[in-house]
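Possible regression after last week's pipeline update?

I re-ran a chain I had predicted before the update to compare outputs. Posting the input and the new output here so someone can diff against the archived version. Not blocking, just want to make sure nothing changed silently.
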Amino acid sequence: MSTKPVDISQSFVRDLPAAVPKYAGFPKYNFVGGHNDPANVPVEALRAAADAVIAREGRTLATYGLESGPLGYRPLRTWLAEKLKAHAGMTCSADEIMITSGSLQGLDLVNALLVARGDTVIVERDTYGGTLTRLARAGANVVGIPLDEHGLRIDALKAALEDLKAKGIRPKYIYTIPTVQNPTGSVMPLARRRELLALSQAYGVPIFEDECYSDLVWSGERPPALYALAEGQGVIFIGSFSKSVAPALRVGYIVAKWEALSRIQALKTDAGSGALEQMVLAEFCTKHFAAHVPVLNKALRAKLVTLMEALSENFGTSAEFSDPPGGIYLWVKLPDSVDTQHLFQVAAAAGIAINPGPEWSTDKAYAKSRLRLCFANPSHETIRAGVAALAEVCAKEFGVPTRIANVKKS
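New output (post-update):
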């Protein structure tokens, strides 16, 4: 009998994503991912919340669902229903909210409910990269709609819907991030939200509303959610605690009418999302969330200012960007001669991590010279030094900028 080791790779299914390298720690200048500000993780409040809730209800960990059922820990869902009413104008009950393992699981579950291979989905041209990769794996045909400073362009959406209708195609949904859009940071005004809903209803296409960043509005004021304006009809909503509390907690949620949520629940076969996280968040949020978010936003806004100043100092007019009203990202346009996918590679060799624009857009040519920078996690000093280092790499590879500012590095 042969003793040759079995090659397990011969059993891999086809069309897997490319293999990832082994984790080697964060780069020196890390401007990628959805990481948040470490100084504003409410450690002591979370610790006190954990002590209190485990002492009071820890024995419910003996059951799947914490005696709250498969939708998730009821005190958290009850608090969310109240918070969404006050913050986003949404009227929903705790039984119309499902807790998920981050908003990414929410994306997967909604796609499992609505999207089959060959279906057409409408998204914003520049959008969350995780949405694009998931739709590609699902075999969906993706139609990207241009944005302006107020988000999804209604004229372009109407033209696309009319074109698809003429071809006999009804898209499965319109995916939008209307409140602190990723990556542009825009907030869709109320009038445009109403226009979007009118188109959704006229063409019979549901809306998939992603509000993962909606707590991070500098002013603290935002228009009602699309879900609120539609009274929950024809809209599925997802949100997350990743950006408002801590990304490593991996707690998100779906809001939908029971007709849809009951089918999503049948698809969620993981025996429930992490219980301790839900318990601790419910305890923390009830007492501290309202006071925590403004403090976090103040810190994030200050880091954004540092990033914009550093870009202006080091890139001058070569870097174009708006001043977003919230979020943790800056969407930057460099001269057309810059290929940010190549810049990503050479920057990585210098210890700088950036997100190249094509990974966040349906229009790769449009996004070729764009990049997304996350400013939430690095310190102010690291932001300044990292942008200076990026400018040096960019100048060497592309001649942009033509002149480098003399900025002291940490």
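Follow-up from reviewer: compared with the archived run. The first helix runs from residue 43 to 57. Marking as no regression found.
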